[in-house]
Amino acid sequence: MGKSAAAHMKKYREKMKNDKVKYENFLKKERDNKKATKTKLNVVELAALRTKNNLRQKKYLNNKTKRLINKPPPVAFKSRQSIGKAIKKVNSALPKCLGKKKVVVQHNAKKLELIAPSMHERVTAQHPGKLKEAVQKFYVRDDISYQLPGNFTIQATIHVSKLVQLARDFSFDLTWNFYATFHGIGVVDGIGGTVKRLVWGAVLAGQTCRSAEDFVRIAKQKTNKITLIELTKNDIDASKNKLQNIFAVVKAVPETLKTHCIKVIDNKAIESVVFEKQQLNTVLNVQYSKLIENPVDVIKQIYLHYKLDYTQEFDKKLQNGLKTTPKETRVGIHTL
Is 51 inside a domain boundary? Predict the structure, then answer.
């Protein structure tokens, strides 16, 4: 069957494109012919020509879009035999178990974006709003692990009264030494915070904590390094009555901010040491860097400050100890 005029023209143009000079001359000649044709047309004919050209361009674009959409995908394998060999290799590498085989194939399909990934929704236990508010208020309280710092007279009085009670009940000498760092949160607060954090984590995980008994039970499940004892209402009432009898006759401790040592004398008397300005000369400040670089000089300075005898025998032992002990093991190493 012979080719049409359009097919012959298409073949002629494709052949002409190989010769750039000839092809450019052909395009120039085509442009000149079109211009000459347009100059001979009147207004109506020129409008009709433009409409015809627009329709032809739209038709060309539509046909091109259809060709791109309906274009068959590129073939990864040249023959059916090659794809058969690839499938055989994959099947031999898959697990024998059907369930495991499905999991592997599904994973690869998700990785290659052949199927949409599954969306997992986490379902948590819903607690009543009142319970959440009660738990939140319980954990923001500080009276559970409150240490009663000596910033206020009444608090210091309570704390000192406890010392007197302990010394009387257990019959031993009791002295309480504390400094500026102990006027606030201490070890008790750290232990209490740890226990509360453990129980709070268990509550978030779904456990129920509605009473002191539940609190102690959950805390004992979470840690065995902290001894927990539940105080019942009877214990609290008994302690309350006992403390009320003590507070009825106890006297306030003056100037608690300056007090740094309390010793129990008897049931109704304590001895306190007040930090005075005259005692400042008893404190020697030592720089950490100097202690590391020249420990012998710093120790001599300490002995001289406190008027102690720095003997040759002690100096000899000190020098031998420094020689046998590496520098990096003399002090603690802190890492971040």
Answer: yes
The last residue of one of the domains, among 277, 294, 318, is: 277
Q: What percent of the chain has pLDDT over 90?
A: 5
CA dihedral for 111, 113, 118, 119, sign (positive or negative): positive
- Measured between alpha carbons, how far is 267 from 168 in angstroms, rounded to an integer? 7
Residue 178 and residue 220 in one domain = yes
CA distances from 245 to 63, 168, 250, 270 (A): 103, 15, 9, 18
The model carries a pTM of 0.29
First to last CA, the chain: 87
Q: Is residue 56 a part of any domain in this protein?
A: yes
Provide the pLDDT confidence category of residue 144 given band limits of 50, 70 and 90.
Answer: very low
Does residue 290 belong to any structural domain of this protein? yes
Let me know whether 46 and 136 are in one domain.
no
CA angle 141, 216, 228 (to 5 degrees): 95
Question: SS3 of 274, please?
Answer: strand
How confident is the model over 70-108, as pLDDT tens digits?
Answer: 776 667 777 888 888 888 888 888 888 888 888 888 888
